[in-house]
Amino acid sequence: MNGYLFHTESDRREMLRAIGAESVQEIIDGQVPPAVQMKRPLELPPAADEMTLESELRRLAASNASVSSHVCFMGGGAYDHFIPAVVDEIASRGEYYTSYTPYQAEVSQGNLQVMFEYETLVSQITGLDVSNASLYDGGSAATEAVLMALASVKKRHKVITSDAVHPEYREILEAYLQNIDAELVVVPASESGTSEGILDAIDEQTACVLIQHPNFFGRLEQVRKIADAAHQAGALVIQSFDPISVGLLKRPGDLGVDIAVAEGQCLGNPLQYGGPYLGIMACRQDLMRRMPGRIAGQTTDRRGNRCWVLTLQTREQHIRREKATSNICSNQTLLALRATVYLSLLGPQGLKETAEHCVVKTNQARERFAASERFELVHAGPVFKEFLVRDREGDVQALLEHATDHGVLAGVPVGPMEPKWKDCFLVAVTEKRTEADLDRLMKVLESAPADEANRLAETV
Amino acid sequence: MRNQQATKLLFEMSRSGRRAHHLPPLPAEGETAASLLPADQLADAPPPLPELAEGDVVRHFVNLSTLNMSVDTHFYPLGSCTMKYNPKRNERMASLPGLVDVHPLQSDRSVPGVLQMLYELQQMIGEIAGLPGVSLQPAAGAHGELTALLVAAAYYRDRGEDQRRYVLTADSAHGTNPASAQMAGFSTRTVKSNAQGLVDLDDLKSKLDDKTAVFMLTNPNTLGLFDSQIKEITDLVHEAGALIYLDGANMNAILGITRPGDFGADLMHFNPHKTFSGPHGGGGPGAGPICVRDFLADYLPGPVVEKVGEEFRTVDPAKTIGRVRSFFGNVGVLARAYIYIRTYGKEGLRRVSEDAVLGANYLLSKVRHILDVPHGDRCMHEFVASAKKLKKEKHLSAMDLAKRLLDFGFHAPTVYFPLVVEEAVMVEPTETESKETLDAFAEALFRITEESGDVVEHAPHSTNISRPDDVIAARKPILRWTEKDK
Ligand SMILES: Cc1ncc(COP(=O)(O)O)c(C=O)c1O
């Protein structure tokens, strides 16, 4: 039989004798009423040995387009940044990936110190006081931040955001707020793709404002202005930011933001069709006890040595049950480890240069699209690492399929997320892209015949 | 010998001017990044990250790793967490190019292999659960609980039964159950356990009414016992018009033996990081796929994978609650679950549970002579002992016992959970441990109870640090390194 079991027949006999049972079935029958026991085997494929299964998985894997088989210009919250070899090497150590939550601090100092270092690095990239040890992903982290704000700002129920915030993040927020006493206001972005409209929406009922900067369209928001207006009205400000962007741009804490959240996939974590990713969250000191999730802190042991423990646990579900700040238990520690290794490899200079590559190359791509007959830029003005393009031929899905067939993942169609952008797609350019990649992108897109596009569209 | 230099904090190792990462130069002509962005948006300097050479980084993290206990290095009988062996083939296969480097927003047509795998996984766990509607989206068990409760809320709203505002949770339940109920917008009521550690039926009856939405049940429960009254429980709850949620944390006990759908559950989550071999990642990532009855499937979060002819497509269920996270789900974790289930196949999974039950009962038969086990002399995949007597007689707590086990080279069991057992010591050996290991663990436990109290009370003695001061850590929190600490 395939698998990882240990007991020989004689082990089994000895073990059953010690238990005083004839068979394992007898033990089961003593507890599981026969009426609810299965009378047939599970309908599953037969067991597969390693060699056979691996060759099958290789075939499955080879059938997919990926960022190694294709040139990737897709973004929309997940990006093809470079992952240094050291990140994979460290994260593949069994001492990290086969351990669990550091409940026994004395034999988990490795994980706990990494968590403490991660929290410090997150403070450094956000400019805020306190970070937790990770949440599930950038989208659910944004919603956790809103819940945290609703709990902190008493007797206010209004949450204001803009449609320049990732549509999926807004969907999560809607789903979580469905059954609780909260009102969600989504302000449309301006012509230029930014969220000044929020300024007029803020009122005395507003508990918090959620903005994304750089936003879903890659555009830069007036965060300081929005934060000042929100604070004036007694509301909190949450910013979803791009961790790479702070190599150049001001950090959330420097802009007056109260809670910063981010998708940490860009910090050394592979794309793997959407997860596992890394939810980053940091806040001001005075919000610390409302923070969801694990937090590692520094203390000393009985001999006076510096060491690390899980702390502020009275916020958490295993102590507070229904009064906890969140239900999160398992988190994304391994991804936080990868981000910690990644940021320690990049350092301030590496992060800055990575951000510069994104900005410069994104701008080169924008110029190409601006100069093309077929495409137009939807928004004027500066962007960080992505931008929205309109296809004058209008059939974005067929256009992008054509590009995929020619080796290029040319962008993210935004129509499926937001019908009003159905003739548009987002193009993201990371430090990995080259001049030659840009040539190829434009060549492939401009060669997509409009009529072929339409024909393809009917068959897809 | 411990390398003390390499395990200083990254920030203390930093030297200005060191670096590990280099990019090709940008073209000298053309605009600079700074000139392309508005001046008022630019930071004066990049964040004050540590500056290190590549060799520094590697030695640091490798040395730190050796300060952890893990499944690869130690027996890790952490109750409720199913710390089984994490197959290396899962790691390699899930990291194949074409799986690990696929963008989440690629078209369905460009990822047929990924969708096939996810579709088959939906089918397989639906079969194991006996519940046909499957969403792979939730990121962990707790997230699955919350998602399923949002599904239940949407179902009741649709039926005009908005008055069902209460979720019942067992007093032996994991803390995530009441916390998830609260987050989903419900109020909670606690159902007591009886003297046998099972659901107190009278208490359950007294709390069921037309305001009850869901009873969250863990079965086998957190005491490692399968609730033999399961039929009565599910009948009572269904008669009240409420739904049964099954916390699937303990599925490792019943794979192929019984199915939640067959014993009356309407919704459930799996913890693939437990049941389907994880790994646990030092705290995560996990995944928390949920399975529901057919009449609830339309409310599941999207996307789910459908098969149309020979093609696989992502679609949103008709009355979907929306989504609970971005993108598809923790696909890397789900891929490992897929590989694990395929490896054991139809007969193998049942054998996994049988061996988990065998190992736990064998260990129980030994531990019973060392510590009190208040609830039964048989169990499913785990059992809960109590150090209450030890506390009374020798002033040694469950925590002391846990700490001393570390000196014997064993990770500690879960302690102080479930709350219904005083000085709880919750032991889950899993099916991937040998009889010799279980014997050695029982022997260590026995020796500890015979040791002088002084030795145990001050344990651990052999680890890198002794017991940390948790009180100071919480009272005067130091949650990051700051420049002045340098
Ligand atoms: C009984 C039980 N329920 C729920 C959970 C929560 O699962 P997760 O940590 O995957 O969120 C756990 C995990 O420890 C558990 O043991």
Automatic annotation (TrEMBL), chain A:
The keyword Oxidoreductase applies. The keyword Aminoacyl-tRNA synthetase does not apply. It catalyses: N(6)-[(R)-lipoyl]-L-lysyl-[glycine-cleavage complex H protein] + glycine + H(+) = N(6)-[(R)-S(8)-aminomethyldihydrolipoyl]-L-lysyl-[glycine-cleavage complex H protein] + CO2. GO terms for molecular function: glycine dehydrogenase (decarboxylating) activity. InterPro entries: GcvPA, GDC-P_N, GDC_P, PyrdxlP-dep_Trfase, PyrdxlP-dep_Trfase_major, PyrdxlP-dep_Trfase_small. It comes from the Bacteria. Residues 4-445 form the Glycine cleavage system P-protein N-terminal domain. Transmembrane segments: none annotated. Keywords: Oxidoreductase. It holds the Pfam family GDC-P. GO terms for biological process: glycine decarboxylation via glycine cleavage system; nucleoside metabolic process. It is an enzyme of class 1 (oxidoreductase). Its EC number is 1.4.4.2. NCBIfam families: PRK00451.1 (NF001696). The glycine cleavage system is composed of four proteins: P, T, L and H. In this organism, the P 'protein' is a heterodimer of two subunits. Belongs to the GcvP family. N-terminal subunit subfamily. The glycine cleavage system catalyzes the degradation of glycine. The P protein binds the alpha-amino group of glycine through its pyridoxal phosphate cofactor; CO(2) is released and the remaining methylamine moiety is then transferred to the lipoamide cofactor of the H protein. This is Probable glycine dehydrogenase (decarboxylating) subunit 1. It comes from Roseiconus nitratireducens. The gene is gcvPA.
Automatic annotation (TrEMBL), chain B:
Keywords: Oxidoreductase, Pyridoxal phosphate. Gene3D superfamilies: 6.20.440.10, Aspartate Aminotransferase, domain 1, Type I PLP-dependent aspartate aminotransferase-like (Major domain). GO terms for cellular component: cytosol; glycine cleavage complex. One of its GO terms (biological process) is glycine decarboxylation via glycine cleavage system. Coiled coil: none annotated. The keyword Membrane does not apply. Residues 353-458 form the Glycine dehydrogenase C-terminal domain. The keyword Repressor does not apply. Residues 151-281 form the Aminotransferase class V domain. It comes from the Bacteria. It is an enzyme of class 1 (oxidoreductase). It holds the Pfam family Aminotran_5. The glycine cleavage system catalyzes the degradation of glycine. The P protein binds the alpha-amino group of glycine through its pyridoxal phosphate cofactor; CO(2) is released and the remaining methylamine moiety is then transferred to the lipoamide cofactor of the H protein. This is glycine dehydrogenase (aminomethyl-transferring). It comes from Roseiconus nitratireducens.
